[in-house]
Amino acid sequence: MDAEMAGVVWLIGAFLFGLLNCFFGYRLFIVTVAIVGFLIGASLGYAIGIWTGNWVIGLVAAGVLGLIAGWACITAYYAFIFVVGGIGFALATAFLAGLFITDVHVLIPIAAGVIGGFLSLWLQRVIITVATAAQGALASILAATALGAGGGVAAYRTLFNRLFTGELSRAGGLWFYVGLALWLVLAIAGVVTQSKRGKEMYRRQPRFIGAP
Question: Are 146 and 139 in contact (CB under 8 A)?
Fold first, then answer.
C-alpha cells in the first residue's frame, strides 16, 4: 500500500469514525476513550520507528504504547471527559471568535477549554452528547472535504489548523458556509439521535414492584 492509498484509507476511516461518534458517541464513549488513547500511543510508537529507522521497532512500539495509552485513558476516565469537553469548547470558541476578531489570541480558546473541561465534569451526559455529536460531525465533514480535494491526510490537518486558528471562518466563501450548514445539520441530528436513545434506555430499565 503506497502513501497516497494509505491516506485515502485513513480519511475514509476518519469519516466513518466521525459518523459513529456523532450518532453513538455517548454510548460508545468508553470505546472512544480507548481508541483515542490507542491512536495517541501508536502514533508515538510509529514516531519512534521513524526515529530509529527500523519499521519493525516502530510496529512493535506502536502496538505496545497503543495498548498502554488505551488502558491509561480508560483509567483516567474523568480526565478524558475534561479533555474532550475542553477541546470542544476551545474549538467552538476559536471558530466563533474568528467570525468577529481578525487575530484570535491563543489564550482565548485555551481559557474557554479549561472552563469547558470543568463544565464537562459537572454536566457529563449533556456535554458528552453535544461534544461527541459536534466533534464527530466535524471529523466527517473535514474528512469528506479532504477526500474531495484529493489532498490526503495533509489536507485534513491543514483544514483543522485553519479552523482552529479562525482562518477558515474569516475567509468565508460559499463552500465554507455550505460546510458550516452541513456540520450544523449533522451535529443537531447526532444530538437528537443520542438523546432519543438515552430516553429509550431509561424506559427499558427494570422497575421494582411497588416502585414509583
Answer: no
11 closest CA partner among 196, 146, 202? 146
Q: Cα separations (Å) of 163 from 29, 132, 171, 176?
A: 25, 18, 10, 10
pTM: 0.58
Interval 117-152: pLDDT, tens: 888 777 778 878 888 898 899 889 988 988 887 777
Which residue ranges make up each domain of the chain?
A: 3-196
Q: Give me 211's grid cell.
A: 416502585
Q: How far apart are the first and last CA of the chain?
A: 60
State the virtual CA torsion across 31, 37, 40, 45 in degrees, nearest 10: -110
Number of H helices, E strands in the chain: 9, 0
Cell output for 46: 510509529
